[in-house]
Amino acid sequence: MALHKRNSYEFLRALGRRPACAMLGPPLESGFPAVEGDQEACVAIVKQLRVELANKPGALAELCSELAKKAVNISAIQASEAKALGSVRLLVNQFETAKGVCDAIGVKYLEEQVLAVSINDRPGALGKVTRKLAEKGINIEYVY
């Protein structure tokens, strides 16, 4: 899950974390680092790419194929309905390389700071994390 907020540090404070403490422990299967003492969620502040793609067959395939050629792995993706152009949000393992790929194929992009949260697959885990944010008055602008 990637949560967006203009200041991702607010999310960490709401969850009782400091950025330095958010990245303790070995990576989980999800690729996100474990958080000491927290069995519900693992959090990290990361950069995402928000790319602008034409809404036509093959546009996303071209981007994904070009990223793959440079061994860029996509760990999370979000896209929604679009008119002629649409935004696609990507969390990738090689951020700078992904930007270079976008530049090379003429895809416009923005860099955004988000909070990446890996939540255990059990009933109530998402509710527990989002409740902590709500109690601190933090609104989630989008999630994927």
Question: Can you tell me about this structure?
Answer:
The structure is a single chain. The termini are close together. Strand 3 and strand 4 (85-92) form a beta hairpin. This protein is α+β, with helices and mostly antiparallel strands. It has helices spanning 8-14, 59-69, 95-105, 125-135, and strands at 2-4, 41-54, 74-79, 85-92, 109-119. The chain is 28% helix and 29% strand. A five-stranded antiparallel sheet has the order 1-5-2-4-3. The chain is elongated, with a radius of gyration of 16 Å.
How would the blueprint of this fold be written?
Layout: E1 2-4, H1 8-14, E2 41-54, H2 59-69, E3 74-79, E4 85-92, H3 95-105, E5 109-119, H4 125-135
Antiparallel strand pairs: 1-5, 2-4, 2-5, 3-4
Which characteristics define this entry?
5 strands, five-stranded antiparallel sheet, elongated, alpha+beta, 144 residues, single chain, 4 helices, 29% strand
Main beta-sheet annotation: 5 strands, antiparallel
What shape does the CA trace take?
A: elongated
Low-confidence stretches: 18-38
Oligomer kind = single chain
DSSP helical segment count: 4
Name the average pLDDT. 78
Helical content class: 25-40%
Major beta sheet, strand line-up: 1-5-2-4-3
The ordered string of helix (H) and strand (E) elements is: EHEHEEHEH
Distance N to C terminus: 5 Å
Secondary-structure-derived class:
alpha+beta
Number of strands: 5
